[in-house]
Specification:
This protein has 59 residues and is of the alpha+beta class. Helices cover 37% and strands 36% of the residues. It has one domain (8-58). It is elongated.
Length: 59
């Protein structure tokens, strides 16, 4: 056994619309992040949309 940590962490996301879960997403962070590139791009896009909506609400 070594003190070098290898592996990954799993993160789960629910896409909620009007208070209802419409989709589930799982992303593994750690070894092999490249496999999740498409999922990361989708999440960044969704975060961007949310930020635009927040900015419009504040204005």
């Amino acid at each position: 056994m070594t003190d070098k940590w290898e592996g990954y962490s799993k993160f789960y996301f629910n896409h909620i619309v009007d208070g209802k879960i419409v989709d589930h997403y799982k992303i593994d962070i750690g070894d092999g992040n490249e496999i999740n590139q498409r999922d990361f791009e989708f999440l960044y896009e969704q975060i961007g949309k949310s930020q635009i909506e927040l900015n419009q609400t504040i204005e």
